[in-house]
Structures are given as C-alpha cells and as structure tokens.
Amino acid sequence: MRSFLMSDLQPSQKRAAALIVAAQSCTKLGDVLTNPKTVLTWLLSSLGTSGAVLSMLVPVRESGSMLPQLFVSGWVQRFQRRKWVFAGGAIGQAVCIASMGAAALVCPPTAAGVVIVVALAGFAFARSFCSISSKDVLGRTIPKGFRGRVGGLSNAISGVLSAGAAVALLVGPERDATRFLAWLVLGASMLWVLGAAAYAMVKEPVPESEESGEQPAATIGSRLRMVRDDRRFRRFVIARSLLLGSSLASPLFVVLGHGGNASMGALVGFLVASGVASGTSSFLWGKLADRAGRLAMAFGGAVAAFVGFSAMLIAWRAPGWSGHFLVWPFLYLLFNIGYAGVRLGRKTWVVDAAEGDRRTDYVSASNTLIAVIILIVGALASPLQAWSPLALLAVYSVFCAVGGLAASGLAAERD
C-alpha cells in the first residue's frame, strides 16, 4: 500500500497528487450520483418523460463532452496554468447539475425532460474543458510512472463512496422516491464545487517553453493531420475506437436486467455494482497502467469481451439464471472492471505519450474524433438494439476483443 500511495514522490508532488485525487474523487462520485445511464434515466422515467427525450441522454453526455475539444483546445493553451480552466469547468458543471435537480422538482414531465437535456449539454460542454486541462495538470505535476496510480486511487475512493451512497438510497422514502432522487441530483452539484476548490490549490509548474510562448498553438487542421502523419497516435485512435464497446455496452446490461422492475432496489443494484467494480479493481489497473497503459487497455478489453460473451451464453442457454435479480448486476460489475482498465489505460497512455502542448493536441484530437465515432456507432446501433439487445452486445464484445489486440500492439508510450 505504501508504494501505491506514491511515497517516493517529492513533498510538493505528494501534495499535488493528494489534491488531484481529492478533486477527482469528488467529481467521480458526482458522476455516479447523476449518471445519465442509470440515475437520470430512472428519474425521468419515473416522472413520465417521453422516450424520445430519454434516448437523447447518453449520446448528449458522451459525445457532448468530447466533440468540442478540438475547437476549444487552442483557447485552453492560452492559459499558462491549466488548473484554472479545470476549476472553471467544474463550476460550470455544478451549475448545470443543480439546474437538472431543480427542474425535476418544479417542472412538469415534458418541461423537466427538455431542461435536463439542455442542462446536460451544458454540463458536457463544461466538462470538455476539464478533460483537456486535467491531463495537462497531471502531466506537469506528477512524474511518469505514478500517473496511473493517481487515477486508480481516485477511482477506488470514489467507487467505495459510490457503493456506500447507493446502499444509502435504500433508506430513501419509498412513497416519494422520484422527489428524493431529484434532491439527490441537486445536492450532488456541490461535489463539483468541492472538486474545483481542491484543484485550485494544486501548485502547477509551467514549462519554460510554454511560459515564454515559444510554442505556437496548433491549428485544427494540423491536429487532425496527426492521425494521418503520426503512426503511433493513429494506432491509439484505432484501438480506442474499437474499445468503445466497453463503454457503449454498459447500458445493455441495465436494459437486459431491468425485467420490468423499476424499484429503487433494482437501481441500487447496478449503482453498487459500478462502485464495487471501480473500488476493487482500480488499484491494480493503476499500477499496471504505470507500467504500460497499452497493457491496461488490452487486458481491460479482454475482460469486457469475455464478460460480454458470457452474458450472451447465459441469456441464450440458461434463461432461468438470467431471470435472477442478482445475475445482471453481477455481470455489470465484472464488465465494469474491464471498462475501468480500458479507461485508466488510455488516459495514462495519452498523458505519458507526449509533453506540453503536444499532449493537449493528442487529447483534443482523439476525443473529438471519438465523439464523432460515438454518434455514428450510436446511429447504426439503434435499430440493432431495438431488434435484439443481445445481438448488439455481441457486436460490442467483438469490438472489445479486437480493440484489446490492437492496444497490445501499440508502441510504448514512454521512451
């Protein structure tokens, strides 16, 4: 445990790591308590919002935070200290989350749905600034070989807290669970305020070349051309695109396990599974990512593929098992263990693979391209999901398997 807590770092680096872990733990816990795949979908379903509005939640959240990054990254690069960009983005997310909770409390179903989708779009846009700036701050304050552990530790802490918070939902009022969830979302907005405060206290060094303004900001075109000209970056984008299956397949487990049960207990089962998956696996994934981010991506993709194929076999060959209320949350837990490895691995890889503003270019270009791919895949997958969620799970599981192989062949992120 002592080695995992980064005892070899300098005092200033330890303090920065502690503050980053605290900030990320707050925002990740907030993500769980306001997750569009589970909590917001459940909340709006209970309010009676139309299915057309519900279908927009996940695409708006997933693509909305990544699509703008190619266009805002040049503005982010104007800031010598990127921690202020993160803090501002976190405050923006807090305002949007508070708007969602307030809308659920005071608006009729249709209006509440529209306000929440609009606020979710604003939340995603604010998050795009945090996504870019957080990797710059991490790269400046924490040396290579420890960055994966920072992410792993924050994931583990937030996972434990998320599981505890999910269990606590069981004591919520059964007669007015919808209002209780609305207040929960409203209160969760304060977690982003705490995260902004913690990040603002990080002592962030500025590289001399950036301080003197010697590195001109890359244009949008030059960032996109990196995919063509930078072979290592191109292979990373391909691997990450295939490994999207580990993210996009998660709601399918919720759909398959719903079984017409819309009780608070059913929701809690999936929330606990998500928290336990993060809390129990992130230590190991973080250490592996520090050795090689590509290996964490590869093994995570393999785990997700194995669980996806196993879930299909259970649904097809053991329908009795698939009807048990614990089976799908358990499979969801195992699948999210794999997803945690993919997520930590690709974040560590992209931070370690480049320095300075080149890192910002990598992050913004890859995230914007991935957002476009998510929209395309979502449009193609929608009719397949309507026909058979299991068929779509099979496709995503194949993606995970092939993506894991692609990630294992990535060039080393550290020279």
TrEMBL record:
Record's keyword annotation contains Repressor: no
Pfam families assigned: MFS_1 (PF07690)
SUPFAM superfamilies: MFS general substrate transporter (SSF103473)
InterPro entries: MFS, MFS_trans_sf, Sugar_transport-like
Designated name of the protein: MFS transporter
Tagged with keyword Transmembrane helix: yes
Organism annotation: Haloferula helveola
Keywords, sorted A to Z: Membrane, Transmembrane, Transmembrane helix
Residues annotated as transmembrane: 40-60, 84-105, 111-130, 150-171, 183-202, 236-256, 262-285, 297-316, 322-342, 362-384, 390-412
PANTHER family: INTEGRAL MEMBRANE TRANSPORT PROTEIN-RELATED (PTHR23526), MAJOR FACILITATOR SUPERFAMILY MFS_1 (PTHR23526:SF1)
